[in-house]
């Protein structure tokens, strides 16, 4: 049975699962679908198009599946999909998609800290930690297990790889490759995220191979030449393949 405060508004067309807690002054619009065991503290707004899983906790002032801040949006039916076991802190805003992708996606087991923003058509992976006041512009992609510190500004269409650590206050309009630390001003590659990789169970041999791959790629003026040398000299694994594919698919260019 759901526990819904008498001071909350739940649209009759909204679909709620079981054992959800809806605090006072929450607003749940039509065309909202919610799973089980979610907690919505006071003053949470769930706008139309939200599709949320189970076991999430949403803190006061958060507004999810908001209308995109994009002048090309003309009211088309789009969604915002959020997975399971997320902690969405105070005043977080997440926009729904536009005609471009049709949806904004947030995975599972993420910590989204106070006042951060996810714009339209972003794709956020799982097991990420996003710091206070960090802002993602439209169609940003964040891969799994990324840690992005506070007050980071990410340009539209930018991709950030998995297992990274991004320094607080950074700005990037280029892609940040996986497994690294990125920081300084202007932002650049600052070595591997050694502590993070070891905490995630990466072996010393694998970490050495990833480091060798980056040394080779960054030693070449042309990324293509570096990738060919990596393929020839570094033992192949799914992690090395991920690094290679990241560089090959980058459209905005990768930080160095």
Quick recap of the structure?
By secondary structure, the chain is of the alpha/beta class.
Molecular structure report:
- With about 260 residues, the chain is α/β, with parallel strands linked by helices.
- The chain is built from 4 helices and 28 strands.
- Strands 1-4-7-10-13-16-19-22-25-27-28 form an 11-stranded mixed beta sheet. A 9-stranded parallel beta sheet has the order 2-5-8-11-14-17-20-23-26, with no helix packed on it.
- Helix 2 runs antiparallel to helix 3.
- The radius of gyration is 20 Å and the shape is elongated.
- The mean pLDDT is about 100.
Distance between the termini: 53 Å
- Given the helix and strand composition, which structural class is it? alpha/beta
Unreliable sequence segments: none
Share in β-strands: 25-35%
Question: What labels would you give this structure?
Answer:
single chain, 256 residues, alpha/beta, 11-stranded mixed sheet, 9-stranded parallel sheet, 4 helices, 17% helix, elongated
Secondary structure elements and their pairing?
Blueprint (H helix, E strand, L loop, with lengths): L2 E2 L4 E2 L4 E2 L4 E2 L4 E2 L4 E2 L4 E2 L4 E2 L3 E3 L4 E2 L4 E4 L12 E4 L4 E2 L4 E3 L7 E4 L4 E2 L4 E2 L4 E2 L4 E2 L4 E2 L4 E2 L4 E2 L4 E2 L4 E2 L4 E2 L4 E2 L7 E4 L4 E5 L1 H6 L4 H15 L4 H11 L4 H12 L7
Parallel strand pairs: 1-4, 2-5, 3-6, 4-7, 5-8, 6-9, 7-10, 8-11, 9-12, 10-13, 11-14, 12-15, 13-16, 14-17, 15-18, 16-19, 17-20, 18-21, 19-22, 20-23, 21-24, 22-25, 23-26, 25-27
Antiparallel strand pairs: 27-28
Helix pairs in contact: 2-3
């Amino acid at each position: 049975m759901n526990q819904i405060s008498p001071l909350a508004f739940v649209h009759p067309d909204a679909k709620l699962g079981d054992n959800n807690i809806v605090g006072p002054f929450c607003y749940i619009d039509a065309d909202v679908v919610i799973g089980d065991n979610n907690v919505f503290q006071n003053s949470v707004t769930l706008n139309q198009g939200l599709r949320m899983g189970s076991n999430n906790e949403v803190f006061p002032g958060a507004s999810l599946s908001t209308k995109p801040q994009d002048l090309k949006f003309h009211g088309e039916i789009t969604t915002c999909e959020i997975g399971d076991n997320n902690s969405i802190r105070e005043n977080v805003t997440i926009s729904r998609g536009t005609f471009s992708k049709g949806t904004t996606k947030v995975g599972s087991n993420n910590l989204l800290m106070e006042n951060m923003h996810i714009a339209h058509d972003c794709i956020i992976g799982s097991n990420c930690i996003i710091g206070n006041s960090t802002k993602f512009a439209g169609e940003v992609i964040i891969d799994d297990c990324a840690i992005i510190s506070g007050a980071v500004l990410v340009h539209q269409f930018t991709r950030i790889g998995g297992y990274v650590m991004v320094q607080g206050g950074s700005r990037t309009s280029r892609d940040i490759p996986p497994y690294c630390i990125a920081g300084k001003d202007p932002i650049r590659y600052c070595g591997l995220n050694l502590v993070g990789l070891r905490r995630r169970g990466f072996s010393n041999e694998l970490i050495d191979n990833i480091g060798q791959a980056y040394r080779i790629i960054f030693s070449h003026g042309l990324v293509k030449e570096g990738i060919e040398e990596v393929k020839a000299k570094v033992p192949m694994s799914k992690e090395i393949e991920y690094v290679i594919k990241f560089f090959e698919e980058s459209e905005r260019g990768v930080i160095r």
